[in-house]
Design brief:
274 residues; mainly beta; Jelly Rolls; 2 domains; 7-stranded antiparallel sheet; 23 strands; globular
Length: 274
């Protein structure tokens, strides 16, 4: 079963007027992981797509998505998939990959229909592509590792870069995940914006009662979303993104836009936030 929701772009001035319900409606993706379903959110930010696939013992096939306007979803797109569940498989017409928890799979433009099977919980990201790069399974050991932050500032964290120029080529999709160390709660602090790219955060590895206070909005007009396990925050190019959790967590970050320069960020110091 395929379920696709469209999210239209929101101007920063409009976002300033939104109450909690409206902010969550436009910028929080809930209920992405449902047994026996593929659920996608098609955004009008760089035509970026995010979603989840949970086979739950019965294979699921992702092929035609009306919103993309092509016969096959990957005819003019690339895709990044992260398995946040148990062992599963992802297959195209020509290849099949067994994915363990934490593995990342890149599928290039024109890969064809995608089949999800096994006990995996697959987080899906996709962006338009103009060139076909080889599909590739990237395990944790193959990722580029960056250590940032400190316990003194409560943001000691490990960044694992997967679909990233340090590891492989892609058209515009960049993806990795960040894990907070014990005793740290803040991610991406100091916060930043990048007007040239959309970014989405999928928070996971949270206990049912835990939450992340995800900061968003313009630096001088900040807003927030309270995010639960396996929910995603959609960050428009004009919005900063940072957050603090009530307990440990990991988040998958994925970006698409003008470039694949991970360091292309406009930082905002805490004292300048409002």
């Amino acid at each position: 079963m395929l379920n696709v929701e469209t999210r239209y772009a929101v101007h920063a001035e409009h976002a300033r007027t939104m109450d909690t319900e409206a902010l969550r409606k436009h910028f929080l993706a809930e209920g992405l992981f449902v047994d026996g379903e593929i659920r996608l959110v098609y955004t009008h930010y760089e035509r970026f797509v995010l979603g989840g696939a949970v086979p739950a013992g019965k294979p699921l096939i992702l092929d035609h998505v009306a919103q993309s306007g092509t016969p096959g979803f990957l005819d003019r797109r690339e895709m990044g998939i992260v398995n946040i569940g148990e062992t599963g498989t992802v297959s195209t017409a020509s290849e099949s990959w067994a994915m363990e928890r934490g593995d990342v799979l890149y599928l290039g433009k024109g890969a064809g229909p995608v089949t999800f099977a096994g006990a995996g919980r697959f987080y899906i990201t996709s962006a338009p592509a103009h060139v076909t790069f080889p599909s590739r399974l990237i395990r944790l050991a193959d990722s580029a590792v960056v250590k940032l932050g400190s316990l003194e500032t409560s943001n000691k964290r490990t960044i694992n870069q997967f679909i990233h120029p340090e590891v492989m080529e892609s058209c515009q999709l960049i993806l990795g995940y960040t894990t907070l160390e014990d005793g740290s709660v803040w991610n991406t602090m100091p916060a930043h914006t990048h007007d040239r790219r959309i970014e989405a955060y999928l928070y996971f590895n949270l206990s049912p009662e835990a939450r992340v206070l995800h900061l968003m909005g313009e630096p001088t007009e900040t807003r927030h979303l309270l995010v639960a396990n396996e929910e995603a925050a959609i960050s428009p190019p004009w919005s900063l993104h940072s957050g603090a959790g009530t307990a440990g967590y990991t988040f998958i970050w994925a970006m698409a836009g003008d470039n694949v320069d991970y360091t292309d960020m406009d930082f905002v110091q805490p004292g300048d936030l409002r």
